[in-house]
Amino acid sequence: MATKMLTFTQLDRETPEKRTAAERREDFGEIYREYAKAQAEAQASRCSQCGVPFCQVHCPLGNFIPDWLKLTAENRLQEAYEISASTNTFPEICGRICPQDRLCEGNCTIEQSGHGTVTIGSVERFITETAFEEGWVTPRMPLRERAQSVGIVGAGPAGLAAAEALRADGYKVTVYDRYDRVGGLLIYGIPNFKLEKTVVQRREALLRAQGVEFRLNFEVGRDATLDELRGKHDAVLVAAGVYEARPLRVPGVGAKNVVAALDYLTSSNKRGLGDAVEAEGLDASGKRVVVIGGGDTAMDCVRTAVRQGASAVTCLYRRDRANMPGSQREVAHAEEEGVVFEWLAAPQSFDAGRSQKLKAVRAHRMHLGIADSSGRQTPEPLDGGEFSLDADLAILALGFDPEDFATGLGAIELRTSRWGTVLVDHKSMMSNLDGVFAAGDAVRGASLVVWAIKDGRDAAESIRRYLENKAADQLAAAAE
User: Which residues form the FAD/NAD(P)-binding domain (predicted)?
Assistant: First the structure.
């Protein structure tokens, strides 16, 4: 079916309907409604089908974006889903939480010409949700079973992407995770208004139906060492995330109600899942909240605080808006919901008084000085720029560092970088230990979910080659 493309000169960019800020503040539901079918087809038809698709080039997964946009415009949605799923293990997740404004949409050709980008993320979500509704999404069952097995440490996006691919190849796959649910940060770190937990649990059900085994509440290093897993499996993939909060070394940081972002978000997500959680110091209801940081985690925190009923929410960031690492769309959503941003402002101390209960955040106005070796301008304090923000809860969202993998996994021989990440041969993704691979944040440090999916898929391919060579060597040795 032929459909006219390049309609961007006749049709304006149109996102799915967004719930009002007043509505959004009252619950944790996703903020966008679903596209109507005709609307999704029309928006997909805006694609220019350019000869060099920069959207695809700037997608970590190399998604065939122009292809599935054209198929959507032609109402060939099952084919669109199949093309999308061929490069992306979890398109329904990427369609929701990828920072498209920094990746595919930010590099859309028609965006550069001033016509407004194609709504790639929203169409991707529409395709996959339609596929689930129509029953097109089924487990990729192996054509034949193999005798070899793989153990995966971590049930986050990298581990799950690798597990799906390896199980499709016929390997026995066991995923070990220290938490009680599958998904890692997808479950406990990302709020429902960006990613509803049923979306993750739906994929978990598919993985279980495919034959992936999960061992939850199982901490490698406590319940078994890495060496013990190596003895049990033919290959092991370390796909643990990075959860160590970066410290802020200023006076008063140990005061009550000065908390780490992940602790705060995990508490909120667990309550949303119906768990009984001790929330003292981790609930923003009725409090004046200051969040320190400028990344996507900081945006998750400020928007969660709004929904918990905070009396005021302020984000403190030492650089300006143009230099923040988080998504500009997330900032816009937060501003709509009532968050106040203090740009070019850095915390100096936390005022707690004798009670050790937080009363205020003392901060300093900054300006951007000379660029450092990375080319980024360095924030420097302005003379006389001191000010204070009344606060009952301060949330530190300064990013994450790796935990001590070697010690934590009970494998002191595992080589790590000076940043604490697992050292691998980037061609094979294998560590210095034979048969032990690593992927995702464990290797690259805290990064995007889409990169974790990419790394998990690549690691699965490397493990497959390794195991096939290992099986061939064993056959050859047996024949001698």
Answer: 150-456
